[in-house]
Amino acid sequence: MDFDVGIIGGGPAGSATASYLSRAGLKCVVFERELFPRPHVGESLVPAATRVFKEIGFLDTLEKAGFPKKYGAAWTSADRAPVYAMQFEGLSADCHVDIRFEEREQAGVDRNYTFHVDRAKFDLMLLQHAHQLGAEVYEGVRVRGVDLSDPTQPTVHFKLGQQDIRTRVRMVIDASGRHTLLGNQLRLKVLDPVFNQYALHTWFEGYDRNRLSHGRGQPEYIFIHFLPLTNTWVWQIPITETVTSIGVVTQKSNFARSRQDREQFFWECLRSRPELYEGLRAAQQVTPLKEEGDYSYAMREICGDGFALVGDAARFVDPIFSSGVSIALNSGRLISHDILAAAEHGDFRHERFRTFEALMRRGTRNWYHFINLYYRLNVLFTAFVQDPRHRIDVLKLLQGDMYDEDEPAVLAEMRRIVREVERNDQHIWHKYLGSLTSSTFSEVF
């Protein structure tokens, strides 16, 4: 074999996997199709990522980079209707809720903050860290496919200049992100029938991040601003002291085709929250408007004899709670445990990766159901965040701890209330229901 493990993709999932395995003494190679640094969406981290950074020895490097620290999250709504103050089963909602990470101790996390990151810099740093730990890294190399006809020696095919090259490995990891190389090659990909979201996003210089903080002074938080459009929201993420990432996420059916129409749609969405709109108009847009599509999908299988899929290559769920990088990093952590055990026994068959498979299926399923509830009834989410009976259980999910329970009790309780609101068209919260239904909790994949 040329390498023990071949990793397709040098983003957070691939770099984390390479770091874990290289630290443990396996010979790894990373094939990255682009040249880093390269821009990428998804700039806000959650605390579950800190555990990974500590375990691979990257946390000190990250601290020294000077990225803005993230102490919590806040959600705002323009709707100040009296219904938001009305009680239901001891719950009351508000148009502004927030939460601090320090409110719950988290295993493997020793600080009360995480980070907002410029992904171009962050991804480059993480890939360089994997290389420093011993992983071979090839950038600007496009993998053309993987030959799995003999699963005991998968062969990665790629092109270097004009030369076709084959590399034999003991196992292949697909960390190719939303390119989903193996998912497409093996016809494993299933588009999400529920979430079909698109995002329009850009950076602004000089935006006053306290405009919608309701006097709480939270410029270092990530903000999620609800819009009065079905299943549409805005992210607000600090990139530097003066630069802020703003993104509008909406359903594909709302998404305009032409660039001119998209620009207009972006600003019309923001106009529905006048205070946000006015603040951004007073700021300077410093990057072109970009779009992200094909938002949510799953795979019928995420591992098999001689291969596994990690990060976005395995599953992509609407990233409303900054889940993307955390799931990518933790999938690298989880698969690495199984790979090391497989390498010790010289056996890379599917059975060796059942633990990884079960944990990833469980975690992403919990996250998916959490987001279903969020879109179905925003008012319920804000009520649970405020209520001391449920606040810590919700925070656990927001911190990225979602792998240890088949279904957290808080999700079952939220689903029960959603169904009650759905059945009663006279319910005080009924008119706040989104277009989804609680039937989306069935396992659509």
Automatic annotation (TrEMBL):
<dbReference type="InterPro" id="IPR050816">
    <property type="entry name" value="Flavin-dep_Halogenase_NPB"/>
</dbReference>
<dbReference type="GO" id="GO:0016491">
    <property type="term" value="F:oxidoreductase activity"/>
</dbReference>
<dbReference type="InterPro" id="IPR036188">
    <property type="entry name" value="FAD/NAD-bd_sf"/>
</dbReference>
<keyword id="KW-0560">Oxidoreductase</keyword>
<dbReference type="InterPro" id="IPR002938">
    <property type="entry name" value="FAD-bd"/>
</dbReference>
<feature type="domain" description="FAD-binding">
    <location>
        <begin position="3"/>
        <end position="353"/>
    </location>
</feature>
<protein>
    <submittedName>
        <fullName>NAD(P)/FAD-dependent oxidoreductase</fullName>
    </submittedName>
</protein>
<dbReference type="Pfam" id="PF01494">
    <property type="entry name" value="FAD_binding_3"/>
</dbReference>
<dbReference type="GO" id="GO:0071949">
    <property type="term" value="F:FAD binding"/>
</dbReference>
